[in-house]
Specification:
The complex is a heterodimer of chains A (191) and B (76).
Chain A (H helix, E strand, L loop, with lengths): L6 H8 L3 H20 L5 H18 L9 H20 L10 H6 L7 H18 L4 H12 L4 H8 L3 H20 L10
Helix pairs in contact in A: 1-2, 2-3, 2-4, 3-4, 4-8, 7-9, 8-9
Chain B lengths: L10 H10 L10 H45 L1
The chains are: A mainly alpha (191), B mainly alpha (76).
Chain lengths: 191, 76
């Protein structure tokens, strides 16, 4: 895919340029972290799995054919790494992040301290609710409604047919709406 | 998003999307350290891999040489 801005760096990394690979890590570490973090229980696990994802990508770079954007290929590795980890470890992945507060503090926030605190608490509550969904539903919600990826990219990342992705996303949103409507906290969901 | 135009969201789905969007602002904690750690491990693992490949190649060559010698003796 010639329009993929990562291609020059990928080619340089394939030629042995580790600095180019480091730039790819710099460019994609946040999205990898966000996708993985929604699937595992803790911040620390998400950081470890983010590192593992990039190392796997580094060693498999020769297998990357450039048919899909590098980001899709990388997120597919991230998704598989996180799902395998959750399956093998048997760790409950439906808990909120241990350091959700710290993590949110790392993002760009504006407003008074009281506003920031309120937003942070709201996000933590939402994170708990999101983690109550099954991994498959959570993944499509994250990839579509948080990361804004296309159906095609989501299908590639989750290795699922396009039709399944659309159906799964519809069911995931329905389930999440249902969860939020049955919550004592008012999420201001229109009927 | 390439297919946004085709997606008709209900008001509740729109609300869910707007609620979730702030998660997209999150950054990996210790991002710079994470990048350096990956680069360090990649460099180290590549060195180890090169050594292992070199050892493997040498072992294969040695094995091949010994095999040729043994076969040569048997054929005599």
């Amino acid at each position: 895919m010639s329009s993929d801005p990562d291609q020059p760096l990928v080619r340089a990394a394939l030629g042995g340029d580790l600095h180019a690979f480091e730039q790819l890590v710099e460019r994609h570490r946040d999205v990898v972290f966000r996708v993985v973090a929604r699937l595992v229980a803790s911040d620390q696990e998400a950081e470890d799995l983010t590192q593992d994802t990039f190392l796997r990508a580094f060693h498999r770079l020769e297998r990357y054919r450039g048919e899909a954007p590098f980001r899709s290929w990388l997120l597919r590795i991230a998704h598989n790494t996180a799902v395998t980890y959750v399956t093998r470890s048997g760790r409950a992945d439906t808990q909120p992040l241990d350091a959700a507060g710290e993590q949110v503090a790392g993002s760009v926030e504006a407003g008074s301290p009281a506003d920031q605190l309120e937003r942070r608490e709201r996000r933590q509550r939402l994170d708990i609710k999101l983690k109550g969904l099954g991994p498959a539903h959570r993944t499509v919600l994250v990839l579509r409604d948080i990361e804004g990826l296309s159906y095609e990219e989501i299908a590639r990342i989750t290795d699922a047919p396009l039709g399944s992705v659309k159906g799964r996303l519809h069911r995931a949103r329905e389930e999440f709406i249902d969860v939020l409507r049955n919550n004592t906290y008012d999420w201001e969901l229109p009927r | 998003m390439t297919d946004d135009a085709a997606e008709q969201l209900t008001p509740a789905e729109e609300r869910v999307r707007s609620l979730l969007q702030p998660f997209g602002e999150e950054r990996a904690p210790h991002g710079t350290e994470l990048t350096h750690a990956v680069a360090h491990r990649a460099r180290w693992q590549r060195s180890v891999r090169r050594v292992l490949v070199a050892v493997g190649t040498a072992a294969a060559a040695l094995g091949g040489g010994i095999g040729s010698l043994v076969r040569g003796r048997r054929n005599r």
